[in-house]
Structure prediction request, 91 residues.
Amino acid sequence: MVTPQTIRRDLNELDHQGKISRHHGGAGLPNSSIENTRYGQRKHHLSAEKDRIAMIRLGHVADIDTLFTDAQPPIPLMEQLKLGQTTVVVC
Prediction:
């Protein structure tokens, strides 16, 4: 078993050697084109497109389905969902 402290120490060393780039919540390759953007920015990025996709998906939810989401779904979208016996689980 590897402890979180060991992982953190190894990541710090790899960052110091320039082999990785540390960021909040993890690490990545140095000079990567993938940017670790803040939640506040991601939340609003392409929001109209995300809402459109969500509305399409809501049409496929059956009355007895269970939905899992990793964040609080937008209220306007939840209002469109006819819950009936549908269970929504926010993780």
The helical segments are 4-16, 39-44, 47-58, 75-80. Strands lie at 21-23, 26-28, 66-69, 87-90. The two ends are 27 Å apart (CA to CA). The chain has a mean pLDDT of 79.
